[in-house]
Amino acid sequence: MAPTEPVHSYRDVHAQTFVGHDLHLNLEVHLTGAELQETLERLLPLLRSPDATVADGVVRAQAQQLHLDNAHADALVKYIAARPYEDAREREEAYLTRLCLDAGLRRIYSRYVPLSGGYRLVQDLSPTYSRILVRGEGPNRTIERVRLDDIREALDEHPAFILLAQPGAGKTTVLQRLALELALKRLQRADDTLLPLFVRMAAQKPDESPLDFLARMWREQAPGLHTDPAGEMALALHQGRLCLLCDALNEARREKYRERMMDWADFARHLPTGNRLVFTCRTQDYSGELAVQQVEVDPLSPE
C-alpha cells in the first residue's frame, strides 16, 4: 500500500490518503497503511484464540498481549471499514474485529460486574418465548419473580426479552458486553455461536420495517461489498444465526411509534428458532407493547 503523496515521516503525518487496490482511505493518525496491516495481522490470531480477552486497550491471548491506544484502535477500525471485502466470511470476520475494537466496548470488562436481577412476567406472552410462573387466577393472580445470577441466563432461556431498568442502571453496557462476548466466541468457533448485531432503536425510520432496519444497520456496520444486505439478513434469520441487540427503545423516534411496536411484536412472535432478540428500555417508558419476556436488572456496581 503506497501513499498518494510523498510522506516525510509517519510521525509527522496528521492526515494522509493511502491507496491499495481500489481502496482510498483518509486517516488522521501517525500510522501508515502498512503499519495498520501489520497490526491487524498480529491482532487476528489473538482474537481467534479461545482465551482472548479485550479490555482497556489491551488484547490478551496465548500468553501474549497487544496494546492499542484509542487513536491506534480507531485508525484500525477505519482501515478495516474501508477495505472492499467481497467474500462474505471475510466481511463477517472484519465486522467482528471492528466490534471487538470499538472504543465503547474495549473498557467493558474492566468496569463491569455480574448482574443480578429478576423476571417480571407479563400477561400477554407466547409460551414459546417464556417461562411463566403464575399463582392463582383473576384478582388473586400473582406473578413470581425468578432471580438471575447473570443476565446470560435470560439469553439462554428466552428467544426474546426486554431489559428494563432505571436511567443509568447499565442497560446499554449489558448489551455491549453481550455483543463483545459473542463477537469473540464467533471469531473463535465460527458457526457455533450467534452473530451479534448491536443497533440503537432511535436510528429506525418511521416507515421502516424491522427487517429493513436491521438490513440497513448490517450494511452500515459490516465492511465490504454487499450485493443484497436484506437477503443476507433474511437468510441469517431463517438459519437461526443472529443475536439482535436493540438498545434504548425509549429513545426511538415517536413518529408512528405504535405501528412500529406492533411490527416488532410480530417480528418477535415469529422469530425463527435459534435466534435471540433483546431490547432495552427505561422501566417507566415501557407498558408491555412488545409482549415479550421482561427482565428487571439491578444497577451496575461502580466498584
Structural class by SSE content? alpha/beta
In the CATH scheme, the class of the largest domain would be Alpha Beta
Residue ranges: pLDDT <50 for 5 or more in a row? Answer: 1-27, 119-134
Largest sheet: 7 strands, mixed
**Integer count of domains:** 2
Architecture per CATH nomenclature, i.e. the level-2 architecture of the largest domain: 3-Layer(aba) Sandwich
What is the alpha-carbon Rg in Å?
A: 21 Å
User: What is the H/E order?
Assistant: EEEHEEEHHHEEEEHEHEHHEHEE
CATH superfamily of the largest domain: P-loop containing nucleotide triphosphate hydrolases
Binned, the helix content reads 25-40%
DSSP helix count?
9
Through-space gap between termini: 45 Å
- Provide the β-strand percentage band: 15-25%
Largest sheet, spatial ordering of strands: 10-7-15-11-14-13-12
Shape: globular
CATH topology of the largest domain: Rossmann fold
How many DSSP E strands?
15
